[in-house]
Amino acid sequence: MIDDRIEAQRIAADLEQPVAKANELAEKLGLTPYPVNYWIVDYDEMNELIAYGGFQQRYPHWRWGMQYDRQRKQSQFLGGKAFEIVNNDNPAHAFLQESNTLADQKAVITHVEAHSDFFANNEWFGLFTGREEAPGERSEVPMEAGPDAAGMLARHAETIQEYMQDPEIDRSEVEKWIDHVLCLEDNIDQHQPYSPVDIDDEVEDLDTADVADQLGDLDLSEEVQRQVFDEEWLDSQAEDGESVSFPDSPEKDVLGFLRKYGKQYDIDAEKAVEMADWQREVLEILRREAYYFAPQKMTKVMNEGWASYWESVMMVGEAFAADDEFVTYADHMSKVLGSGGLNPYSLGLALWQYVENSENRREVVERLLRVEGITWRNFHETIDFETVRATLEPPDWLVDVPGHLDDLEPEDSRVDADALAAARAGEFDVETYPWQLLSYEGLVERHYSLTKPQNRGFLARISLNELERISRYLFDDSRYESVEDALADVEYARGWDRMREIRQSHNDVTFLDSFLTQEFVDENDYFAYEHSQKSGDYRVSSTDYEDVKKKLMLQFTNFGKPTVVVEDGNFDNAGELLLAHRYNGVMLDVGQAREVLKRAFELWGRPVNLHTIVKEYDEQDLEVARRRDREPEPTEVGKRLRYDGAQVTIEDIPWTEVEHLAATDVDYDTKPEDWLA
N or C: which end of the chain has fewer CB within 10 A? Predict the structure, then answer.
């Protein structure tokens, strides 16, 4: 055991050069990451960092201990291993486990460099840091401003710790308050930039129930009330038709709304009272952290796929994994990509590779369709695809740079002239780092996706419909006399350039919506499945890409959580809160919804209502469906859940009150009648 620890520490001490070279290679490949600070930690420290979300200091709360215990048990009993964790910061901080082999450490470092590039350039991460660009601008240089996340979270931790240690504040009350807020932490508007709720911008209380109570406490006769208060104003408090309603439109940032208008319920006074200053500050702290972590939840597939793609390019394509490290790396990478369930590494990597191949194919096809005598109709009969592939193959000197050192020409745009001079002077090991001799142009041609064996048939698989679409929008009327002339003008960088554009502007939902096609579904054997009401099990429902896409998108819309908005902060003109569930074919878990309403009550101080839609099945219809081997048709019914501080009640409400909540054109629930035989 001691020898293993000494060996692990030796490997860690030798990482300085791989870190520097990985960053240099990443930048040569066109990535622009934040600078990364690497830290070596032991097993327990890694588990603690994972529990803390990648940071060394967080506010006191039982959730961290629970997450630490879960991570430790997963590693101990389920065979999982944490290789690294990296946070979104400038500079970013990456933590490497000292027990990793050198092959694992190199894989982690290349993976981290790509993550850091994603953090620095994706616009959804920029929403939190305030990075802005003029409409239409696309800069490949990351903004100087970073989130300063480590400092922010440390300040938050200190603030909450001080409240817990304040002799005038009960520590358990702070802990309970945190629990209430965390129950709603994903109910923010993650599509908008973070901005703090200004406490000086508070509106006057609109709780008409309080007004009535106060008038009653004064024991004034109705005649005196009419003399003192404006008659029209008094009538407006009692007439539903004149009730004051806000917000003007549904508010998705539930935490922000509660921060601005919420109260706490005073048990002794039996009414809502203003939140204490510490309660409002803790609520805003947790809201701010929710906005910080939101982009990571919104881009899990993109981000992990992006990091896995460039890790593979560096570790395999550029032999960053040495010969004696490759088998270990390949074994561990296959386990990561082959793990079960909805695997963001596997799905993300496959989608990025598909985007690259598709864009490169389009570039080649656009050139070939300009060759005299070639049209979209005769494309497949005219083109010799093996000849095209052979023509696009990189030259021998690009494949084996060290073996052709004397043949390289510094004037060639694919060669880094300064590095070539240094190599010929013996200043670095060309065998270990051949990529140093190449420019970006050389690297994109060296790694051109359509020439790789696994993509051999991709160009030939283009459909007639796609050929027609490309032909329709070919406005450049220049023509080539031969296929060879056309291929000589191919832009090898088009796939990587397009990938960086997508990395900059998309999140998981838009990524899946834009690039998951029938071709991708067929190539990767994806399918949708449904729960059968008649049999009680699950079965394949469709292999149509639209159905698969809807099912996948449902997993990522609003972090895969139900979308709930504030519809009215003065419901029934009684100061009650009305939340609404935007129903997309998937019902709320009513049991969980009950508990969430109880938490929301603590942040509102008055009764809380929730409108939703549920599916109900008639028992007789279920029995008939089972006998006839078909799925029963559910009835969708509007429901109102209400918690008044004592009990939760559920009642049916007219469909007209929830009809606007039902999904129409964006319905993620595939229908049983669309099932395939």
Answer: C
Per residue in 298-314, pLDDT tens? 999 999 999 999 999 99
Cβ distance 131 to 69 under 8 Å? no
CB 49 within 8 A of CB 56: yes
H or E element that contains 96: strand 92-97
Q: At what angle do helices 494-505 and 508-515 cross, to 10 degrees?
A: 140
* 3-class secondary-structure state, position 430: coil
**CB-based burial of residue 510 (10 Å sphere; 0-12 exposed, 13-18 middle, 19+ buried)?**
middle
State pTM to two decimals: 0.87
| 117 close to 500: Cβ distance less than 8 angstroms | no
Q: What are phi and psi of 37, to 5 degrees?
A: -95, 125
Query: Which residue, among 477, 543, 575, 637, has the nearest Cα to 211 in the 3D structure?
Result: 575
CA–CA separation, 365 and 471 (whole Å): 9
Distance, first Cα to last Cα, the chain: 57
Domain segments of the chain: what residues? 2-122+299-338, 152-201+220-295, 395-445, 538-674
Contacts of 675 (CB under 8 A, 6+ apart): 530, 539, 540, 541, 542, 631
**What are phi and psi for residue 154, nearest 5 degrees?**
-65, -40
Q: At what angle do helices 344-368 and 508-515 cross, to 10 degrees?
A: 40
Chain centroid, CA 285 distance in Å: 22
Q: What is the pLDDT of residues 590-610, one digit of tens each?
A: 999 999 999 999 999 999 999
- C-beta of residue 120 within 8 angstroms of C-beta of residue 34: yes
The one-letter amino acid code at 285 reads I
Convert 541-569 into a string of H (helix), E (strand) and C (coil): EECCHHHHHHHHHHHHHHHHCCCEEEEEE
Q: How far apart are CA 121 and CA 403, in angstroms?
A: 37
pLDDT tens per residue across span 463-506: 999 999 999 988 776 789 999 999 999 999 999 999 999 999 99
Give the separation between CA 558 and CA 579, rounded to whole angstroms.
Answer: 16
